[in-house]
Amino acid sequence: MKPTKHVLSALVLNQPGVLAQIAGMLAARAFNIESLAVGETETPEFSRITFVVVGDERLDQVRKQLEKLITVVKVLDFSQDEFVERDLMLIKVRCSGPQRTEIRELTEIFRGKIVDVGHHHVMVEIAGPERKIEAFIDLMRPFGIIELVRTGRIALLRSERTGLEDDEPATPQSAAAEA
Predict the structure, then answer these.
(1) Pairing mode, strands 4-13 and 113-117
(2) Domains by residue range for the chain, with CATH
(3) Per-residue pLDDT tens for 116-130?
(4) Which pLDDT value is given to residue 134?
(5) How far apart are alpha carbons 156 and 78 in whole angstroms?
(6) In 78-120, at which residue ranges do the beta strands (DSSP E only) sit?
(7) How far apart are CA 125 and CA 133, in angstroms?
(8) pLDDT digits 0-9 by tens, 45-59
């Protein structure tokens, strides 16, 4: 079976070391994390880790092993579901006076915004799906990219389903009791 890109979302207890456990388990099984984003959820006791890995059928086994970790509430593979994803990027591009107008117009087309201007550069913020970010980067290459940084992908299922339906509702108290 050919390896495919998977967007995984892990609901975890908001505790030190959880990210290291997950990254270690993936690394030990030779999965490289291509993208990673972590942040608190609507409940401060939980964090959501969104990571993108390229994997084969072994990835489902790893997902199940991750769920056995005490600090992990649930891990979902969004790859078979409809989901909304976003990356955020800041990109610093070389430009002279006449080029600023062209860069500004391209930024507007991509629904980005210029967040900083220097004598010989502009900095642009762009958010959107990976393909949008990649397309904007390709358009900026001829101007000269000075540097760029990306947040890593974040994603949520389009449906009202959270992935916790199979389990009892997660609360900070029930998750902590399991720990």
Answers:
(1) unpaired
(2) 4-81+159-178 (3.30.70.260), 85-153 (3.30.70.1150)
(3) 999 999 999 999 999
(4) 96
(5) 8
(6) 83-94, 113-117
(7) 10
(8) 999 999 999 887 788
